[in-house]
Amino acid sequence: MERREREALELERREQPAVERREQPAVAVERLDGVTRERFLRDIYPRRKPVVLTGMELGPCTTKWTVDYLSQAEGSKEVKIHVSTVPQMDFLSKNFVYRTLPFDVFVRRAAEVNHQEYFLSEDEKYYLRSVGEDARKDIADIRKQFPVLAKDVQIPEYFEKEQFFSSVFRISSAGLQLWTHYDVMDNFLIQVTGKKRVVLYSPRDAPYLYLSGTKSEVLDVDNPDMEKYPLFVKAKRYQCLLEAGDVLFIPALWFHNVISEEFGVALNVFWKHLPAESYDKTDTYGNKDPMAASRAIQILDRALKTLEELPEEYRDFYARRMVLRIQEKAYRNDYG
Predict the structure, then answer these.
(1) Which of 2, 5, 23, 1 is nearest to 13 (CA)?
(2) Which of 65, 204, 239, 279 is deepest in the core (most CB within 10 A)?
(3) What GO annotations for molecular function exist for this entry (predicted)?
(4) Buried b (16+ CB within 10 A) or exposed e, 125-158
(5) Domains in the chain, ordered, with CATH?
(6) 137-155 pLDDT, tens digit each
(7) Could you read off the pLDDT of 257-307 as tens digits, one per residue?
(8) How far apart, in whole angstroms, are the C-alpha atoms of residue 96 and residue 75?
């Protein structure tokens, strides 16, 4: 997190009454069965809120993708994976290492609780997030990286073909928790096998999530350090449990933290919600801020640098005027 952001959050904390630690009651994400494309686009998509879609036709993958089948289907092609000695993987502190394994070996290890062969420890956790042939240039597309498995999946076509961005194949060890982050594109999280618990936060609660780029510093959302993150208690928590065959719609900019309750396989499908030219052409992961947002942040940084020429009293006054100006011109008033 940038120094100025930290100072602003600390100022807000000092100016408010002390916040006692209290459990945040989670709002259950709505579950809807048998939603057609027409209903999704007409009634659900415009609301820009997460929803779990059940009863979707996903093809034979939900019953076919056993450990044995996965191991045989794509053979011994090498995959790059995350390996961690702790269940909570943190992208900011990089508490994991990257290793390479044949896919069939990786699948069997990821399905184990304790390992006879391992890199770091006998209870290490594994995570695969598929990437393109050249991760710096190519997007993830299950049809290209895992063509045999791709034939088993029927991706819900609730968006136009030209909007498609990527299809990210994921495999996680049981108990693995991934860092809280947001993406800049809409996506479906398709839970093919296993169970996942997903905790989400609205874009409007960004001030309480202690951001560093697209990621939150608050990794343990169930037991956060309230002395270190006192404002986190103000973030409204949404939650759902995904089982095999469930599809979670995650709108762009919604923060999400994913916990694998069991060994499982999932597929994320990202698509472009904004005009294609709005996105950074070098973005292969779907998590770089839109071009206009990046330019605005750069301009703001220059403005804040200019304010440093003033004495503290004046700097504080004009910074507050800038905040009021931003609220007046850019904040939405119709959040539900």
Answers:
(1) 5
(2) 65
(3) metal ion binding; tRNA binding; tRNA(Phe) (7-(3-amino-3-carboxypropyl)wyosine37-C2)-hydroxylase activity
(4) bbbbbbbbeeeeeebbbbeebbeebbebbebbeb
(5) 10-282 (2.60.120.650), 292-330 (no CATH)
(6) 999 999 999 999 999 999 9
(7) 999 999 999 999 999 999 999 999 999 998 899 999 999 999 999 999 999
(8) 25
